Amino acid sequence: MPQANAYAAQSEQSVLAPHTIERRALRPDDVAIAIDYCGVCHTDIHFAQNDWGMTQYPVVPGHEIVGRVTAVGSAVSGFKPGDVVGVGCMVDSCRHCDPCQEGLEQYCLEGPTLTYNGQDRHDHTVTFGGYSEAIVVSDRFVVSIPEALDPAAAAPLLCAGITTYSPLRHYGVKAGDKVGVIGMGGLGHMGIKFAKALGAEVTVFTRSPEKVDEARAQGASQVIVSTDEAQMEAAAGSFDFMLDTVPVQHDLNPYLALLRHDGTHILVGLLEPVEPPLNAGNLVFGRRVLAGSLIGGMPETQGVLDFCAAHGIACDVEMLDIRNINEAYERVKKGDVKYRFVIDMATLKVDG
Amino acid sequence: MPQANAYAAQSEQSVLAPHTIERRALRPDDVAIAIDYCGVCHTDIHFAQNDWGMTQYPVVPGHEIVGRVTAVGSAVSGFKPGDVVGVGCMVDSCRHCDPCQEGLEQYCLEGPTLTYNGQDRHDHTVTFGGYSEAIVVSDRFVVSIPEALDPAAAAPLLCAGITTYSPLRHYGVKAGDKVGVIGMGGLGHMGIKFAKALGAEVTVFTRSPEKVDEARAQGASQVIVSTDEAQMEAAAGSFDFMLDTVPVQHDLNPYLALLRHDGTHILVGLLEPVEPPLNAGNLVFGRRVLAGSLIGGMPETQGVLDFCAAHGIACDVEMLDIRNINEAYERVKKGDVKYRFVIDMATLKVDG
User: Fold this and answer.
1) Whole-angstrom Cα distance, residue A64 to residue A144?
2) Which of B243, B275, B292 is the C-terminal boundary of a domain?
3) How far apart, in whole angstroms, are the C-alpha atoms of residue A249 and residue A268?
4) Coiled-coil annotation: which residues (chains A, B) (predicted)?
5) In this structure, what CATH number is given to the domain that contains residue A66?
6) Chain B residue whose CA is closest to A111
C-alpha cells in the first residue's frame, strides 16, 4: 500500500514535499501500525539536516511513534488490530548476541536497526521513521501503550522518556537519594519526573536563571544556576547521582565535584570528546563513577510506559501540525519548546 | 626518644643525610612501632623531589610500613608489644563523616591525615613516614600482618596491594570474568595476582613486547601489546573490567572499546586531566563505566593482608639498603624494578 509521507528535504532546501514509499508486506512477526502521533527529537534534526554526514535521502525521521495496529503477521500473538502501540528508536537487532539475549537490544553487538536511516536486516532497504501515516515493525520492537496514558503525551516516552528512565533504574535510584538533573529540555524534564517518582530529592542545574521557577514547577526541590560558582561550591559533595542530559560539550569537572563519594555522573546526551578534559583525580578521589547510557532495551521500554501509567507521568508536549515542522526544528534548536513537540499525524493526512 | 631518620634531600641535592626527629609520646590510642621494612612507592619520589609543589621539608617518605609493636597507649586493646603490624598511606581521619563511618577513611570529607607530609590532627605537626626506625600511629590506622606473610613482601600490600585489591573487590570481580590489567609495575603485578586469585581470566596490556613472557609468568593468560593495533582490535568488546594502573596521561579510548557492554574501566594511577580527550560515545554506547579508586579503607586494608595470607600471595620485591635510595629512585623512574623496592630498615640502623 503506497502511503503519503513527509520528509525533511535535503541539505539547504528547507521545504516539505510529499513522497510516496511502499511499506513492506507483512512478515510473520510484523505489526502494521497507523501512526497517530510522533515526537520530534533533536536527533531527527541532525538526520534531516545531515549534521552527522550519514543521512541517506530521502529520510523519514521520527522515532517516538504512537499509533493503532491495523494488521498483524501470522506469528504475532501479542498484538491485535486496534491496539494502541508504540515504536521507539529501534526496529530490529541481531537477537542472538549477549546484549540482545539480555533484552538490551540497544547495545546489540551487530548494532540495532534504527527506526529511520537504518538498514532492514532482511531486504536491506533503508528504514523510514514516524513522520508518516504508517509503519511496519517486527513485534519484538513494538510496545503497548497503557490505556491510562494520553497517546500523544506518551510518544516522547519512546526516546526522551526511556533515555532518562533507564539509567535511573539501572543505577538503582531510590527514595532519599539526592539526584541532580543537568539541562531541562525534552530529556531533562522527564528525568525530573522519574527521579521524583522514584522518591529522590531532585535538583535541577540550568545556565538560565529565568528557568528557576519552571524547574520548581516541574518538581525540583532545588535549582542551581550552574554559572554561579558560589551556588556550585555550596553544593560540593552532596549528590548521589547526576543525570546529565546536555548534548553539547561542557565541563564535567565542576559537576563531578558535586558528587558524594561513590556518586555517579550519567551521560545520556553527550557523544562528543569530553572537553575541557575530564580531571581523572575527580574520579579517583571519592571513588566516583562516570557512566553512559543509551535509550533502553525493549523490556525496559515497555517498563517506562507501565511506570508512567502507574505514576501518572506524562511528557509535557506541544502539539504540532506537520506543515510547521521546519519552524518547529528551528524552535527546538533554540530550546524554545516545553518540552517536546509531538506531530499530530492527522495533519499529514489532510495533505495526503 | 630521638631517632635517626633518612630523608631524601631537597630539590637538586640528591644526598642522604641523617636527621633527628622526636616521635610523640603515646596518646591513649597510639601504637609505637619499630619499623623493619618500608616499600618504595613512586609517590615517595614525587614528594621527595617536590614534583607536586606541596612538599614540606624535611620530609620522611614511606607509606608501606611493616614493623613490630614496641609499646601501646592505655586504651589500645587490639595490639601488644611484639605484634607484627603494618601502616599504610593514612594515619588518621576525621572519623565522623559518612566515608569514615563506612570504613572508607581514604575518602574522609575532611581529608585523611597522610602518613607523611600530612598534618597531625592533634598537635598540628608534620607527619613523618616509614623511611625511619620508628613510627607512632593511632590504632585505627594500624593493621595486623598475618603470620603466613613474609613481612618484607607484605610491606607493599599497604599501598600497591590495597590500591589494586580494593576496586577489584568493590566492583565484584569474580570467577570467569575477563579482566585486563594495564601496566605491569608495582601496582599492575599485584592486580594480576588478585584478579587471578578471584578466578578471573587475566590479560596484561603492555607497551613493551619484551614484557610478554614476564606477564605470563605473573599469571596472565593473555598479553596484548597495546601499541599493536591489530591485537587491540581483535580484543574489542571482550573485557568485563580493565584495571588501569598507568600513572601518566594515556589515551583511554582504545581501552574503552575493549570493554563489553556494562564493562568498567577503573583508574587507580591517573590523577591528571584525561588527554587525549575521553570520547563520551565510548561510555554511552555499551553503557560503559569509567571509575576511579584510591587505596582502600582500613577494614579493607586488613582484608587484603588476610586475603594474601589465605591465597599465598605476596608482592615481588627487591630488598634495598637505604644508602642506595637515590639510585633506587632513579631505577623506579625507569621502571627498572621487579616489582617493588623494599627498604630493609636494619641498613638504617647501621648508620644510626
Assistant:
1) 13
2) B292
3) 12
4) none
5) 3.90.180.10
6) B285
Residue A347 lies in domain: 2-159+315-351
Question: Mind listing the pLDDT tens digit for each residue in A209-263?
Answer: 988 999 999 999 999 999 999 999 999 999 999 999 999 999 999 999 999 999 9
Supply φ then ψ for residue A256, to 5 degrees: -60, -35
For A2, the grid coordinates are 503506497
B104, B278, B284 member nearest A294 (Cβ): B284
Mutation to test the A interface, candidates B256, B261, B270, B275, most A Cβ within 10 Å: B261
H or E element, residue A125? none
Confidence of residue A184 (pLDDT cuts 50, 70, 90): very high
Chain B residues touching A98 at Cβ < 8 A:
260-261
Characterize the bridge pairing of strands B2-8 and B16-22: antiparallel
Domain end point (choices B265, B292, B319):
B292
A276-310 residues labelled b (16+ CB within 10 A) or e (exposed): ebbbbbbbbbbbbbbbbbbbbbbebbbbbbebbbe
Distance CA(A268)–CA(A248), nearest Å, equals: 11
Neighbours of B293 (CB within 10 A): 25
Measure CB to CB from residue A284 to each of B267, B273, B279 and give the nearest one.
Answer: B267
CATH at A253? 3.40.50.720
Q: Are residues A12 and A149 both part of a single domain?
A: yes
For residues B220 and B232, membership in a common domain is answered with: yes
The DSSP line for B274-334 is -SSPPBTHHHHTTT-EEEE--S--HHHHHHHHHHHHHHT----EEEE-GGGHHHHHHHHHT
**Whether residue B280 is found in the same domain as residue B203:** yes
Q: Is residue A244 part of a domain?
A: yes
Q: Which three cell numbers stand for residue B262?
A: 556494562
Contact (CB<8Å) A260/B98: yes
| Chain B residue nearest residue A273, CA to CA | B279
Distance between A28 CA and the closest CA of chain B, angstroms: 31
Total number of domains in chain B: 2
User: Residues A12, A116: one domain?
Assistant: yes
Evaluate if residue A137 carries a pLDDT over 70.
yes
| Same domain, yes or no: A90 and A134 | yes
Nearest to B284 among A109, A237, A267 (CB): A267
